[in-house]
Amino acid sequence: MANQAQYKQLREQTEASLSRIHEANPESYIREKELGSLSNFKEIEGLINKILNLYGSINIEDVIDLPFDLQRAFTNHLNDALQRLQELAEYDPNQNNAQRRTQLINNIESNYGNYYTHTLPVLVNKLLTGNDLEGRKGQLDNFISEYKSRLNKDATESQEKLQQIEKVLQNVEDSAAESGVVKYAELFADESSDHETKATKWLQASFWLIGIVIVAATLLILLFPDEESSTGEIVQYTITKVIILSSLFIALSICTRNYKAHKHNAVLNKHRQNALSTFETFVSAAGEDEPTKNAVLLEATHTIFSNQQTGYLMNGNDNEGPNKIVEIFKNVSSKPE
Fold it and tell me: DSSP assignment of 172-229, as one string?
């Protein structure tokens, strides 16, 4: 147990250290003007002020009633804080490197918790033994009231900000959806253009084949065997004519079938493009009417994914015309002389 001499010596040390920290000037440790923007300690200005305020609120009368061990622990950490601050005041960038500056900053940051922990008993003792306990209670009530008021204000502002954010997100989603609709409309437009080009080529091929059929039929009629030709020659000529004309009509059938298929796809994709291009207009016109929006969406989906009738494909009956022509030639070739 400490004796009176030890108590007296510790009190003198504590009082001297408290006097030093009461007289301290934060700028002498931050040194913003003296060291410049690269070497000053502006980044820990908050911690420096916290340390000075922590010890600056304490007088020697708040410490002397504490047990010796608590007083000694408080004084030791107070002296450590003064030493750390003095190191900041004595730092010279011309003699110390940047690593030393970082070390000084880390020392302040890592030791602040210990300063606060060993000062807490002094603060509690000051509060319990002070004459202004009721005043402090009133200040605490005012602080709580102010805190609640600020909390309600922040909650209101947060709700307004949240509504604004939700509105912005909705606008972004609408823009993204509109961009997606435009993108897919362009895809169908490209597909329609591609099929239209191919349909034009097959139509040109069909016209060429019609001309070839006419020329071939004319030549075959003009080259028909005369009356002096034998039955074998006539049969051979007839079979050759049937094969040539059948081949030409089959080729013509393929060209017209491909033309109709590509033309059908071109018209169908153009219709899909128009549906997507006008989709946003109808949805916007519907406003907040969800049933109408759903109906527009359903119809647009039906238009995109269903196989609409265009008039170029007649439920598979297009193939009957050329096949009937081939059947006619087959029947003619099979008749007896």
Answer: HHHHHHHHHHHHHHHHHHHHHHHHHHHHHHHHHHHHHHHHHHHHHHHHHHHT---TTS
